[in-house]
Design goal:
By secondary structure, this protein is an alpha+beta fold. It has seven helices and four strands. The chain has two domains: 4-61; 91-170, H-NOX domain, CATH 3.90.1520. Bound molecules: protoporphyrin IX containing FE.
């Protein structure tokens, strides 16, 4: 996975919980405590998952709580600084429907990128089923990111996991 994901996680943990919690997480994950991640660097998926697990242990939170914190931080603080060009949508719905294209475009010129892809289908005019296509199985992160988009657009979205590759989003 691209280093941009663990770099964002590092900034979140340092910013909200302190440098010592981040270093402790790296240590528990079996990585050097001074590890840094470059945005375009390839980081083994297994290392990222180990760090995520370690963060849950150190902060005593569940995987979904960690993914919610990540999604909020990514959408509202981290990505607006480096990917502002993708924030063109006027609503959470527009932003989310654009995410398949964004993930394919943003990684187009990056060797070895394997971005997640998404399919969309509506069950009624407010209810979207989003299918998550990635071998990484990070559906909790998908859910946390969608909640982050709701916060960004100040919309109260109801997000429910249907299966390991599908979520239901009800828009207000
Ligand atoms: C401006 C907004 C966004 C940008 C520029 C962006 C970009 C990226 C990039 C570069 C990666 C790493 C891909 C790789 O390693 O190959 C990634 C991963 C991911 N993104 Fe986004 N993203 C954005 C918002 C979102 C949102 C809103 C969602 C959910 C609806 C989302 C879902 C995910 C997931 C689940 C992953 C983890 C990788 C995986 O599951 O395979 N992203 N994103």
């Amino acid at each position: 996975m691209k280093g941009v994901i663990p770099d964002c996680l590092a900034k979140l943990v340092k910013d909200k919980f302190g440098n010592d919690k981040w270093e402790k997480s790296l240590e528990i994950a079996g990585l050097p405590v001074k590890t840094t991640f470059l945005v375009t660097q390839d980081v083994p998926d297994a290392d990222v998952l180990k760090v995520v697990d370690a963060v849950c242990k150190v902060l005593n939170i569940t995987l979904q709580q960690a993914a919610d914190a990540f999604g909020d931080y990514w959408v509202n603080e981290y990505a607006p600084k480096i990917y502002k060009a993708y924030y063109t949508g006027k609503s959470a719905k527009e932003f989310i429907l654009n995410m398949d294209k964004v993930h394919s475009n943003v990684t187009k010129n990056i060797p070895n990128a394997q971005p997640p892809r998404f399919d969309y289908s509506w069950t009624d005019d407010k209810t979207l089923i989003m299918t998550y296509k990635s071998k990484r199985g990070l559906i909790e992160f998908l859910i946390g990111l969608i909640k982050g988009v709701g916060k960004y657009y100040k919309e109260d979205l109801a997000v429910t996991k249907i299966s390991n590759d599908k979520v239901r989003i009800v828009f207000p």
